[in-house]
Every structure is written in structure tokens, then in C-alpha cells.
Amino acid sequence: MGMDGRDGLATSIARVVAGSAAGFAGALVGGPQGVVLTAAVQPLIEQTLTDVVRRLQTDAQIRRTATVLDIAAERATAYRAKGEQLRNDDFFHVRPDGRSSGAEVIEGVLIAAQDTYEELKLRHLGELMARVAFRPQYSSSMAHWALHVAKELTYDHYLALALVGKAPKSELPRVALGVITESSDEWAFLRSFDEIGPYDRRLIHHGQETTWGDSVGFSIPISQYGLTEGGQVLFDLLSLDSIDSHALAKIKACLMAIQKRVHSEGS
Fold this sequence. Notes:
This protein is mostly helical. It has 10 helices and 2 strands; from the N terminus they run ααααααααββαα. It has a two-stranded antiparallel ribbon. The longest helix is centred in the N-terminal third of the chain and has 26 residues.
């Protein structure tokens, strides 16, 4: 990279740092308690943001980081407007090692954002960063777990979780995971359900007792599936209920086509 390229990257980085610091400073302050907490943790958060952004190497990484920061600040501002306050447990408290769980989660979200090639995930990562800052029911350990899983899942996994979490069971397709597929989309969508199901990540369940090694779940239709406790945590923290029907249309159409074909073959 030439001198002009380095200068341009430095300018972009400086803009991201300035904008993100100002956005978080404004978004996290809410009422007297929020002011006190923010005054205590703001330098640590700003340093965390600066450290992360200094590692950025490409324009795409800068764009993704800025996008997530803007979304998180927007959502935090919305929470404040509804009267919610920054959590006051030990999430943002500075430990003897100079770090805090809150700063670590923020850093983790931004690293996940800059590394993802599926930019449709960015809105949901920003939602996670904002929600854990205001929701003390999500412990530090749970927040770290959710971020780890959210980073590893694909956007199709997000869609599968959203479909199970949003749609009434009567509207879910009566398609079992073990059916024979006829297209790459059918195969990929069913694998997405399989990989978050009771034999893998256990984010969705079919309501029946299973043991490792059995195959009963592959004959149970998706219409009988629901979210597990872990699946509900991800559904909430990633705000998967905000995925609209248009985004879910392709996966629903694919599954309904399988259902129609299986029904016609069985009749």
C-alpha cells in the first residue's frame, strides 16, 4: 500500500474512532446513574474501540465496523428513549486487570463484524452489542456464549432460528429433516435446521426425548420444532424477530415446495 493509501486508511480510521466514541458516549448516558457509570467506563470503552479500529486493514473492515457501531448506538438511543438505563451490575465494572466484561463483549462484536463476509448479519450483531449493555438478565458468561455462537452461525442459521421463533407452529412447514432433497437450496436450508437442532447446537428442539446416536428427530417435521433456552437467548439478543417476512420468503418457499412434493409422492 502506497503513502496515499495509508493516509486514506488513517483518515477513515480516525473518522470511525471519533464517530463511534461520540455515538457511544451519547447512547450510554441515561439519567444520573447512567451518567456516573458512563463517566467510569467511557474511557475504557473508547480505548477498546480505538484498539479494535487500529487493527483494521481494509475498507470493508472499516465499513462493517462503522455499520455495527451506528446500529448499536441507534438501538441504545432507542432504549434510553423508552426509559431504560445502562445496566448497573458488574458488567461494565473495571476489574483489577483493567478490563471489563462489557468492553470485552464490545471488542468481540466488532471483531466478529469486521471478519464476517455475510454483511446481513451486521444489524443483528449491532443489536446484540446494544442489548447486553441494557439487559442485566444476560450475564457476562451468557453474553460471551451468545457472541461466540452468533459469530459461527451463518445468516441462513439466523433465518432458520427466526422462522421457528416467529411463526406459529401451524404456519411452519411439515417437512422432516431426513427427506430427500432435489436442489442445492433444499439441501442447504435443511442442513441449516439440522445444524442448530437437537443433534448439534441444540438451539431448536422437537419436543421429544432424544439421545446421542438416535435418529428419531430426522423424521419429525419442522412444524413441531420450537426454540430451546439457548435458542431463545440468541433470538432475543440478535433481535431475530426483526427479520421481516420478505427475508424469510425464500426459505419458506423452498420448504413448502418440499412439503408439496413429499405430500404428492405419498398420496
